[in-house]
From TrEMBL, chain B:
Species lineage: Bacteria, Pseudomonadati, Pseudomonadota, Alphaproteobacteria, Rhodospirillales
Domain FAD/NAD(P)-binding residues, every copy: 4-279
Molecular function via GO: 2 iron, 2 sulfur cluster binding; 4 iron, 4 sulfur cluster binding; flavin adenine dinucleotide binding; heme binding; metal ion binding; NADP binding; nitrite reductase activity
PROSITE patterns reported for this sequence: NIR_SIR (PS00365)
Pathway(s) of this molecule: Nitrogen metabolism; nitrate reduction (assimilation)
Protein name, entry field: Nitrite reductase large subunit
InterPro entries: BFD-like_2Fe2S-bd_dom, BFD-like_2Fe2S-bd_dom_sf, FAD/NAD-bd_sf, FAD/NAD-binding_dom, FAD/NAD-linked_Rdtase_dimer_sf, NasD-like, NiRdtase/SiRdtase_haem-b_fer, Nit/Sulf_reduc_fer-like_dom_sf
Free-text remark on how the cofactor is bound: Binds 1 [4Fe-4S] cluster per subunit. Binds 1 siroheme per subunit.
Domain named Nitrite/Sulfite reductase ferredoxin-like: residues: 558-622
Family stated for the protein in its record: Belongs to the nitrite and sulfite reductase 4Fe-4S domain family.
Residue span(s) of domain BFD-like [2Fe-2S]-binding: 420-468, 483-532
Protein's organism: Zavarzinia aquatilis
Cofactor: FAD; [2Fe-2S] cluster; [4Fe-4S] cluster; siroheme
Listed Pfam families: Fer2_BFD, NIR_SIR, NIR_SIR_ferr, Pyr_redox_2, Rubredoxin_C
Length: 110, 816
């Protein structure tokens, strides 16, 4: 059996992500966007806008939201949900910062 | 026999714990304290005033020898413990002496983190941790000279201010873009940097230390960019690490710090820990308030209160630099369900921000005026509902519960001689008097007659309120469309104020123009970035994170997340070499679609983001550069073949098109700019629907502008006629610069022209030759900084993080 349980996986240093920016993580289950806000909080979402699948990692990051580069939906980083009148959710990926390193809870072909 | 309590470490946490313990249970233990420093206990957080000379060491001693004696505590100064024998219940000091314990408290504190760059062990490199460090700094300051402080956090800035007060030339190097980024948002960080610079301290942010220079002592610091800063002393203040080595050696559970439970107990029931060496619920603390909270709990535990528990601390920060008032507490990030109340008073350099969630304060940042910090922190810690005082909350405790101010009432209450417009010295009475006397009803009329708000414009709001007061319903306020929900100012006001106030960064604009959000949004940030870039060529540092993805990575994002690449083909002319290179790139990177565009270019569609730099490298090698097909920028100059080939051609339209594109490429503009140059009135280059067009005629060049062939279809308008190619180029550069300086972000030339009127544009770039020359000169000046091929830059490694996805290392479980 090749199945793996999701596990905390070291990704990068917080400093590797630009402030008010994001990086893409090529994870086994699909791309994950890891965001860093102006005040150094780190969030992770599936890199897939609920609207038309735009890569959220490429959007402009402002406060704790990101504006999708394709059609300007604003996705809240804390909940993964679209803000304003739009409805949809880019699913959150568990993320933590330990000693300045970003870790995601990923994996699992389960 | 009395139980024996041994305390390893004599810092602030241990001292405070002993105070509580000897008060609650004076006779419970025979206490021995080992302190590694050869002195009594002192208030470490007051080292900064000692460094600056505002306090003496004696003034910061908390417990002198008599204090220990009166409580029967045996203090072993300079007694460093090197081992714990948990089985035998003893500790061993460096001198070999062994002391037994029944209960042990580990309070070993933390050590400064020293960045291991070359030269970090040279004499003259010090940390900022204890009195010895302070004495080393004071010795260096005695001879004057230069100091470099590495680290723009709390300690680093306090050290910098102290050394400056001692007469040294001080430079602060900070890795991050703004100071104290863990405690302050960028707006407050910006104000702090201004304050440090105002006291003569040089601050370099985004500074990566490469090495510390010197043979047998420090002589300077070299940064990654190669620049060198002379230094007689280097202070490292980049952070601390819990001292948990002793505990680890004894086999206690240690993560980042020594692990304790809510009772401050380690995994050995007889061993407790307190202070900066511990890790509690995943947190290590470096501020004094949590240490005191822990000390109180530990003392109660040791005194026999088994229920005493520490549940973590919400921390607040104050900078102890005289004249700089700064306070932060709690969680001040934004988020859903969170609201913020922001007060900015640009003139007084005040910034206050409260973050509210569920009607309670969860975070506060204050700069410039912090008197209410304690009150806000109290509301935060007690989770007091603020619903009833929300309207006046930001004004502080003295306003709590008061009625919200009516802004009109404040203006109405001003005396007639109160100055409204500082630029032109216009008082309230003059404005209201002129309104009545002349029957003025619009802001422009008031500006024309009184000059109030006619210069920098920052009093426009006040003038409008006066008009409202004087005219009542008769005043029709000009409806200015704000840039976005982050501000009430329109684009034109923002542009004018950027120039009038010499604002040179996004945080500066947001502070000085009193933005209502802390970090802007996807609408205002790109606009501000453009306005700043246009206003301060060569001076402003482009903020890539405020650009739309296409301009950030210099390619066009497609619906599937791939990108398209359009190399520049000057005037739409290409060659066998270029075409061959394009074909090779298409093959090499398996690019799915190759398309000819309407602007006479070749578009390569479906390029994977991580392939972009390699694609560009190959195109660069064949002499091609970015076509800027992705930008609010000069895009294409479309041409026909003109007099060189065409039997009807009147002038060299291809040559003029190439010349224009060579001069204008790289220019950022409010919206995209496309040109067309046709060699005769048959107009094969379709110049009459471009932003700027040229129709060549026998007598010279007819210059057209303000066409559109997109959402709107609109033929161009005549701008003017040029007799020579040089004159045509000058007019077009002047027109482009006028557009760059006057249009609103995302406003195409035809919309700008419609708004300001064709005549006003003609007056600047055709009729007034001096003005035309000045505009063209400003355009060319800006181009000196703009004409850098962004593709080549990225091929050489700029913004590498954009193109390299992160690949986690995923250990595979063994098959089967």
């Amino acid at each position: 059996m090749n199945a793996m349980m999701p596990m905390w996986t070291d990704i990068c240093a917080v400093a590797d992500i630009p402030r008010r920016g994001a990086r893409v993580v090529k994870a086994p289950g699909g791309d994950i966007a890891v965001f860093r806000t102006a005040d150094d909080r780190v969030f992770a979402l599936n890199d897939h806008c609920p609207h038309k699948g735009g890569p959220l990692s490429q959007g402009i990051v402002h406060d704790t939201g990101v504006t999708c580069p394709l059609h300007n939906w604003v996705i809240d980083l804390e909940t993964g949900r679209a803000r304003g009148a739009d409805e949809g959710c880019a699913h959150k990926v568990p993320v933590e910062v330990v000693d300045g390193r970003v870790r995601l809870r990923i994996g699992g072909t389960l | 026999m009395t139980a024996r309590l041994v305390v390893v470490g004599n810092g602030m946490a241990a001292g405070r714990m002993l105070e509580h313990l000897t008060e609650a249970a004076p006779d419970a233990y025979a206490i021995t304290v080992f302190g590694a420093e050869p002195r009594v206990n002192y208030n470490r957080i007051l080292l900064s005033p000692v460094l600056s000379g505002e306090k003496s060491f004696e003034q910061i001693v908390t417990h002198d020898d008599a204090w220990y004696a009166s409580r029967g505590i045996d203090l072993v100064k300079g007694g460093e413990i090197v081992a714990i024998d948990r089985a035998a219940h003893t500790v061993t000091a460096r001198d070999g002496s062994v002391t037994p314990y029944d209960r042990l408290v580990i309070a070993t504190g933390s050590s400064p983190f020293i960045v291991p760059v070359p030269g970090h062990k040279l004499p003259g490199v010090v940390a900022y941790r204890d009195l010895d460090d302070v004495n080393a700094m004071l010795a260096a300051a005695e001879t004057g000279g230069s100091a470099v402080v590495i680290g723009g956090g709390l300690l680093g800035l306090e050290a910098a201010a102290g050394l400056k007060m001692r007469g040294m030339e001080v430079t602060v190097l900070h890795l991050m873009p703004t100071l104290m980024e863990r405690q302050l948002d960028p707006a407050a960080g910006y104000l702090l940097q201004q304050a440090m610079e105002a006291r003569g301290i040089r601050v370099i942010c985004r500074a990566n230390t490469h090495s510390i220079l010197g043979e047998d002592k420090v002589t300077g610091v070299r940064l990654d960019d190669g620049s060198e800063i002379p230094a007689d002393i280097v202070v490292m203040a980049v952070g601390i690490r819990p001292n948990a080595a002793l505990a680890k050696g004894a086999g206690l559970a240690v993560n980042r710090g020594l692990l304790v439970d809510d009772h401050m107990r380690t995994d050995d029931a007889d061993i407790f820990a307190v202070g900066e060496c511990v890790e509690h619920r995943g947190q290590c603390y470096g501020l004094v308030a949590p240490l005191f909270d822990m000390a109180k709990v530990l003392a109660a535990q040791l005194a026999g209160d088994a229920t005493a528990a520490y549940e973590g601390s919400v921390t607040s920060t104050k900078l102890k630099v005289t004249g700089v008032d700064l306070f932060s507490a709690g969680d001040f990030a934004e988020g859903e369900g969170r609201e913020e109340i922001v007060l900015r008073d640009a003139a007084r350099g005040i910034y206050k921000r409260l973050v509210i969630k569920d009607e309670r304060i969860i975070g506060a940042v204050m700069y410039g005026e912090t008197a209410d910090g304690g009150w806000f922190f109290d509301l935060l810690k007690k989770a007091t509902p603020i619903t009833d005082m929300r309207g006046t909350l930001i004004f502080g405790q003295s306003f709590a519960g008061g009625t919200p101010l009516d802004p009109m009432a404040a203006v109405a209450a001003l005396p007639d001689e109160a100055e409204i417009c500082g630029c032109n010295g216009v008082c309230k009475g003059k404005i209201t008097g002129t309104i009545v006397e002349k029957g003025l009803t619009s802001l422009d009329q008031v500006r024309a007659h009184t000059k109030a708000s006619a210069s920098c414009g920052s009093c426009t709001g006040l003038v409008e309120q006066l008009m409202q007061l004087t005219l009542g319903d008769k005043f029709a306020r000009a409806a200015v469309q704000p840039v976005c929900a982050c501000t009430d100012l329109g684009h034109d006001d923002v542009r004018r104020l950027i120039l009038a106030k010499s604002l040179k960064s996004v945080p500066a604009v947001m502070q000085e123009l009193e933005w209502k959000t802390s970090c802007g949004c996807a609408k205002c940030r790109p606009a501000l970035n453009y306005y700043l870039l246009c206003a301060w060529p060569g001076d402003y540092v482009d903020d890539g994170q405020s650009r739309f993805i296409n301009e950030r990575v210099h390619a066009n994002i497609q619906k599937d997340g791939t990108y398209s690449v359009v190399p520049r083909m000057w005037g739409g002319v290409t060659s066998a070499t270029e075409l061959r290179a394009i074909a090779d790139v298409v093959d090499k990177f398996a690019i799915p679609t190759v398309k000819v565009t309407g602007g006479q270019r070749i578009d390569l569609l479906g390029v994977k983001k991580e392939d972009l730099p390699a694609v560009w490298a190959d195109l660069n090698a064949a002499g091609m550069v970015s076509g800027h097909a992705y930008g609010k920028a000069l895009r294409t100059v479309k041409t026909c073949v003109g007099s060189e080939w065409c039997r009807f051609g009147t002038q060299d339209s291809t040559g003029l098109g190439i010349r224009l594109e060579r001069v204008m490429w790289g220019a950022w503009t409010p919206a995209k700019v496309k040109l067309g140059v046709s060699g005769c009135p048959r107009n094969c280059a379709e110049a009459t629907c471009k932003d700027i067009g040229v129709i060549c005629v026998d007598s010279g060049y007819d210059i057209l502008f303000a066409g559109a062939a997109g959402l709107d279809i609109k033929g161009t308008e005549a701008l003017g006629h040029a007799g020579s190619e040089d004159e045509a180029v000058e007019i077009i550069l002047a027109l482009t610069q006028a557009y760059r300086e006057q249009a609103r972000y995302l406003e195409r030339i035809y919309k700008w022209a419609k708004r300001v009127g064709n005549d006003s544009i003609r007056a600047q770039v055709i009729d007034d030759v001096d003005k035309r020359k000045a505009l063209a000169a400003r355009f060319l000046h800006a181009q000196r900084f703009a004409q850098v091929d962004p593709w080549a830059e990225r091929v050489s490694g700029v913004d590498a993080h954009e193109f390299n996805p992160l690949t986690p290392f995923m250990p595979q479980e063994a098959a089967e």
